[in-house]
Amino acid sequence: MKKINHKLMSSNFTRDDFKTLENFFKKANENTILTQGPKVLEFEKKWSKWLGVKYSTFLNSGSSANLISLKILKIISKKKDEVIVPTHTWVSDIASIIQVGLKPVFVDMDFFHLGPMNDQIISKINNKTAAVFLSHIQGFNALSTKLYNILKKKKIPLIEDVCESHGAKFKNKKLGSFGLMSNFSFYYAHHMSTIEGGMISTDSKKIYELSRILRSHGMVREIKDKSLQKYYFKKYKDLSEKFIFLYDAFNMRNNEVGAILGINQLKNLDKNNKIRSRNLDYFLKNIDGSKYLNTFRTKGSSNYAFPLIIKKKSLNFRKKLEDTLNKLNIEFRRGGAGGGNQLRQPYLKKYMKGYKKKNFKNVDHMHFFGYYIGNFPKLKKEKIFQICQVLNKI
Ligand SMILES: Cc1ncc(COP(=O)(O)O)c(C=O)c1O
C-alpha cells in the first residue's frame, strides 16, 4: 500500500504573518514594548468585535482561560459549589474546577455533537449548581435551545469552552457569545494561532475587570474603571496603590508578539473556517456510514479535526484500523478530545466516589473506539477521498 502521509495538524502561520512581525521589529527600538501592551489591547478589541461581545482578555493559553473563568466563578458564586462539566473534554476543564475548590459533576457525551448530553445536564441541576461549564467539541455546537432557556430561567451561569470551535454558530450567533464567559485557545493548529494563547470573552464589565485583575497577579492597578480603582485605593490606605493584590491570582499575560500574530491571523479566520467545513462535509459524504459514525450535527459547525468513530465495539476492527493508519502514515489520536473519558484518568481517581462507569457509556465508546484525524485548510479534496477509500475497505 502506498503511504498517504496525512498529518494530524498543520501550522496556521503564513509568510504574511512573519512579514507582519518583520515590519514590527524593523521599526522597533530599545523603547518598544514586547510584554503586554497596545497590540494586546488592539487584538482584544478586534476579537470582541469578531465574536460579537463587549470585552475580551488575551491570555497565555486556553487552559489559563479555563482557570481564570473558574476562579471568577468561585469569587462570584458564594455558597454554590457544584459545576456541571462534560467527561469528554480537555483535562483543564475539569482540573480548573478542582483547583479553585469547586466540585465537578460529570455528564456523559452525546454522539450528535460530542459535547455533554443536554438532558443529563438538566437532570443534574440543583440548588448547589454554581455553573454549567460546557465544551463545544471539535467544532460542533453542544448547546440546545432547551438547555439555554432553562439556564437563563434559573439564572445559572453558563461558561463556554470554545477552544476547539472558533467561529461555530448556534441560532446564527457565534459560540462564545452565549455564556457569561467564554474561553478560547490559540495553540498551534487550532482554528487560528498566537503560538501559545487564549482569550476570555464576556459582555459583563464586572467579569472583564476580574479577568484583567486575575491575569496580572490580582493587582488593582489592572482595573480599567478609574472610579473602582479609587474605591480600592481608599479601602486599603495602608498599601501602595501600585501593589494592592485583591486575590490569590496568577500571571497569565500574553505579549505583543502573540497579539500581532493574532490580529493578522484573525483576518483569515472566516475564510479558513469555510474550508474546514467544506472538508468535513466531504469526509462525511465519502466515509462509509455503516462502519463509521456520520450523523453529527453539522449545522453551524466549524470543524477542528475529523472525528472517526467506529460504530461497532470491535477490538478486531480497531486493530485493523490502527494498523492501516500506521502503515499509510495517517496520524491519529484515539479517544477524541483530551483522550476520551476523563473519568478514567489518574488525576481524577480520588474524586470518583459514587460514580459508576456504566453511566458513562457514550464517552467510554469514544474512549475505546473514537479517533480524530487531521482536517485543516491546506487539506485537499483528493486526499480526503483517498483516506475515506482506504478506511471504507477495512
Ligand atoms: C476543549 C479544549 N479546552 C481547552 C484546551 C486548552 O487549550 P491550551 O492548549 O491553549 O491550553 C484545549 C486544548 O486544545 C481544548 O481542546
Mean pLDDT across every amino acid position: 97
What is the CATH topology descriptor of the largest domain? Answer: Aspartate Aminotransferase, domain 2
CATH class of the largest domain: Alpha Beta
Architecture per CATH nomenclature, i.e. the level-2 architecture of the largest domain: 3-Layer(aba) Sandwich
Helix content: 25-40%
How many E-type strands? 12
The CATH superfamily of the largest domain is: Type I PLP-dependent aspartate aminotransferase-like (Major domain)
Indicate the radius of gyration in whole angstroms: 22 Å
Structural class: alpha/beta
**Quaternary structure of the protein:** single chain
Rounded to the nearest angstrom, the distance between the terminal CA atoms is 13 Å
Q: Can you tell me the number of structural domains? A: 2
Shape: globular
- Report the sheet-strand fraction: 5-15%
Which labels suit this protein?
394 residues; alpha/beta; Aspartate Aminotransferase, domain 2; Aspartate Aminotransferase, domain 1; 2 domains; 7-stranded mixed β-sheet; 13% strand; globular; binds pyridoxal-5'-phosphate
